[in-house]
């Protein structure tokens, strides 16, 4: 895994890594072979920082951006495998120029196979959830926070959030 270079497609993706799909991956992204990932719970607990999409980086010519859509999912990285599990993620925007807060918007993910509250794997539905953002316009940044599993899982486990097919419009 490697960091996303600042300015990739016009934005900086701070706190995110590029993850290449492995042959037996439990949560393959819609657009193979790569997706963005963050070890969100551990990063937030240890550093207090949160993953963001931002127009702020050296050399940026972007005044603002509008977030349209993204797909996301969550996995628990256990010793023997990564298992998709239900989770919620809070997404909050910050308007360029005014600093006004947009949202927050709670995203919910329920994978096709997930850990239920008893710790057993069940079959439940969609692979990646698609979310659209109607009010996330003229943004300086978007922050992802409050990653919460919807099943009993030890937060000391490595919990990853995957994002793919991020659609946005740049305003220069």
Describe the structure.
By secondary structure, this protein is mostly beta strands. About 5% of the residues lie in helices and about 50% in strands. The chain contains 1 helix and 14 strands, in the order ββββαββββββββββ. It is globular.
User: Quick check: average pLDDT?
Assistant: 79
The count of strands amounts to 14
The residue ranges in which pLDDT falls below 50 over 5 or more consecutive positions are none
Class from helix and strand fractions = mainly beta
Shape: globular
- Estimated helix fraction: under 10%
In CATH terms, what is the architecture? Sandwich
In the CATH hierarchy, the third-tier topology is known as: Jelly Rolls
Span between N and C termini? 30 Å
Largest sheet: 7 strands, antiparallel
Rg from Cα: 16 Å
Series of H and E elements: EEEEHEEEEEEEEEE
Strand portion: over 45%
Give the helix tally.
1
Give the domain tally: 1
- Which CATH class is shown? Mainly Beta
How would the blueprint of this fold be written?
Blueprint: E1 2-3, E2 12-14, E3 17-20, E4 34-38, H1 40-47, E5 52-54, E6 64-77, E7 82-84, E8 87-95, E9 101-109, E10 113-115, E11 121-123, E12 129-132, E13 139-149, E14 158-171
Antiparallel strand pairs: 1-3, 2-5, 3-4, 4-14, 5-13, 6-7, 6-12, 6-14, 8-9, 8-13, 10-11
Give a concise summary.
With 172 residues, this protein is mostly beta strands.
Main features:
globular, 7-stranded antiparallel sheet, 14 strands, mainly beta, Jelly Rolls, 172 residues, 5% helix
């Amino acid at each position: 895994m490697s960091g996303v270079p600042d300015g990739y497609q016009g934005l900086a993706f701070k706190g995110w890594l590029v993850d290449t799909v492995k042959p037996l991956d439990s949560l393959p992204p819609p657009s193979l072979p790569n997706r963005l990932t963050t070890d969100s719970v551990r990063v937030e607990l240890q550093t207090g920082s949160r993953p963001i999409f931002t127009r702020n980086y050296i050399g940026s010519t972007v005044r603002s951006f509008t977030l349209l859509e993204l797909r996301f999912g969550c996995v628990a990285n256990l010793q023997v495998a990564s298992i998709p599990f239900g989770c919620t993620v809070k997404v909050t925007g910050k308007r360029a120029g005014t600093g006004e807060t947009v949202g927050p918007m709670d995203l919910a993910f329920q994978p096709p196979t997930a850990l239920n509250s008893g710790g057993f794997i069940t079959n439940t539905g969609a692979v990646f959830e698609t979310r659209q953002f109607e009010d996330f316009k003229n943004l300086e940044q978007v922050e992802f926070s409050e990653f919460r599993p919807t099943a009993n899982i030890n937060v000391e486990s490595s919990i990853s959030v995957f994002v793919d097919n991020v659609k946005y419009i740049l305003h220069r």
